[in-house]
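pipeline/complex-builder :: batch 7 item 3
reading input block
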Amino acid sequence: MNSNGNLNTELVVPEVVIRRLPLYVRILTQFSNRGNEVISSEQLGLLLHMTPAQIRKDLSYFGRFGKQGRGYDVTILEQKLRTILGLDRAWNAAIIGMGRLGRAVVSYPGFAPEGFNILAAFDTNEDIVGQNISGLRVKSISQLATTVKKFDIKIGIVSVPIQHAQEVIDTLVKSGIKSILNYAPLSPEVPASVNVNSIDPVLSLQSMTYYMK
Amino acid sequence: MNSNGNLNTELVVPEVVIRRLPLYVRILTQFSNRGNEVISSEQLGLLLHMTPAQIRKDLSYFGRFGKQGRGYDVTILEQKLRTILGLDRAWNAAIIGMGRLGRAVVSYPGFAPEGFNILAAFDTNEDIVGQNISGLRVKSISQLATTVKKFDIKIGIVSVPIQHAQEVIDTLVKSGIKSILNYAPLSPEVPASVNVNSIDPVLSLQSMTYYMK
DNA sequence: GTTTGTGAAGGATTTCACAGCA
DNA sequence: TGCTGTGAAATCCTTCACAAAC
């Protein structure tokens, strides 16, 4: 993109592009597991249902990873993208809310293989605090800040009922957390420096019904 | 928008707009439950962290619901949007995959109050078929097509492991389902007439890490 | 005075189309 | 020949700004 060096640090990459990179990583991993060494933007596009041009443009924000006439080396591209996304290391997370939803989230086997480790669980309910759930001893939320520091926790997962969600998110923010995965159905109030991503299946259903007639 | 009548049927509403409508509905419901009768686009914007202009523009795709100098009647706007989205009726769903994830989904108490009723559960595993889970007798997937017809099921929820997801989605499509809520981590192959929405917390985490340094 | 509804402007994102390289 | 990388064009989406309505 810029040609004074090989770093693109002055360019802000659009957030839509960042949200697509994990899709590329996923397909590249699958593709290399099937023994393929090279992939073209066209093949990637077919697998992801997007245009080859978009994939090439997205990748061009970060460098020139392909070879003309050939395509991309699957392993190298995967590794580059993992580094760009910060997926070349593990990330520690804490979950707040150990009701039905929280229990389902901690027992979901999809996080750990991707390097996301839920190291601590919290709840306000005194009946739940102290219980052992999926190998985690549930702590009182009053211990959140010290636990975050002690275990180098960078991600907060919110699985409390909506009435408590904003309060819990405020507590996470105060404890220094900058990234929140939110399962409660609200648009939380957070400082601009904090990133919230919400998982909201009801919203998905409610927009799908528009097209169902 | 067009001024020959009051119908905007020839205009295609952008999908981004449709995806925001459920947010408006949610806030309007909360706002009316607190006893408010009128809301302005500015108030809505503050609650949803978006600009008032965007909200007014979004609503203008469907009609003129506000009163200048006053704002929007909360109850009327909520009702109009529910009708537009098809939320003025209930929708029947079936879930396929009754492992840990499927059990969590059927026991999630957030669907039914919004009019999404999971009426049937399926699995391929013979140990699970026949079990009673959250009041649903798990059926064999071979009964999917007849059950879809019998119970007027319009939505398929996919909570099987990734290896079986595409096959299950093919089966749903063959049975006539046009709307799929997918919890498996893949970009499924479906005809253009079928709508798939994926819930993928790992993708969310993997893009958040880009900003965590 | 207040707030909507909306053309027009501005900004962001996607796609095109092709030079350049393997 | 085949495919990338990328300016330019096209498209899509958001914001502005103000006339009109209450």
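note: Chain A touches chain B through 49 residues (CB under 8 Å).
queue -> next item
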